[in-house]
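Each field is set out underneath.
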Amino acid sequence: GVNKSARSSYSNLPALDVSLAFPQATPATSKFPPCASDYYINFDGLLTSEEQAIRKKVRECAEKELAPIVAEYWEKAEFPFQVIPKLGALNIAAGTIKGYGCPGLCITGAAVALAEIARVDVSCSSFILVHSSLAMLTIAQYGSEEQKQKYLPSMAQLKTIASWALTEPDYGSDASALRTTATKVEGGWILEGQKRWVGNSTFADLLVILARNTTTKQINAFIVKKHAPGLTATKIENKIGLRIVQNGDVLLKNVFVPDEDRVPGFKSFQDTITTLSISRLMVAWQSIGIAMGVYDMCHRYLMERKQFGAPSATFQITQQKLAQMLGNIQAMILAGWRVCNLYEDGKMTAGHASLAKGWITSRARETVALGRELLGGNGISTDFHVAK
């Protein structure tokens, strides 16, 4: 074996601060780049003054509170719980829900808010999306009046955190075939089954569980408290993406749910489709935010980084990739904005939402891949945001 005492004295020193290790470009962790990705359309010109104010306050919070710490938490695959009160104070968690202490944002305001969080960190935006556009929305759309009054006010402030459980180990895209069951007993229901990839589940105060009613054979929704006997949620380890998101395996063994915690209006898988249509639109805007953040980082980096005696941004092959990224983002924003308009007019269909999600996420993947190329070796460093 190697004689430890003979090792060089520098072998176990901590890593250099990235600003010292690579002084030629500013890392996202010290100062997040200014927005250069809203180039073609001046998006604020399409927003109301209220929507502009939402965008501004969320951007300031994300750049100040999230940007300096998310690389560290990404590396540890842990959630930064200290930011929850700061996100709660933004008053965006309930999205479009009206009443019950919720802000009642228009869909465009809610979408822009989510995009601004995703621009700095996609994992933190996923935390909001699961809590708001899935769990809260299910209670708001299909819950009883008592459930809305009991749960929504504290959820809107992020004082009560929720998750939403549809996917199972054997049923992902084939979600309507789920096996988790709900059997009627005196005073309530018994839930049996397993869920997987449930965001927020390891720390959520309550879980909205979708299960098959053994009598009607239809999909129903149930509110399950985190300390319910027979419920366990364990973290899925070894993820290479969305590392801050605490995705869990949820086991339900003889879990009793009282009658008052069955969501009464949720009666079939069609209700799942309705909820998912709104969340799909939010995922599209999450992807817009991701692409904007990547472009913003690459734009500043390539202006600062010098090779062959000139900034990297001056070379045509670099400019071609930046132009492709920037063009993608302008089209993504316009498509997402138009579908928000359709929703506000009561005309958005599941097809509209699905096309927006499918096409916009595809362009986001292309944009991020180009950004990773443009940053060279630093493209895989979370300090420079793109890999994350």
User: Anything to note?
Assistant: The first helix runs from residue 18 to 21. The chain has a mean pLDDT of 94. The chain has three domains: 46-157, 162-268, 270-384.
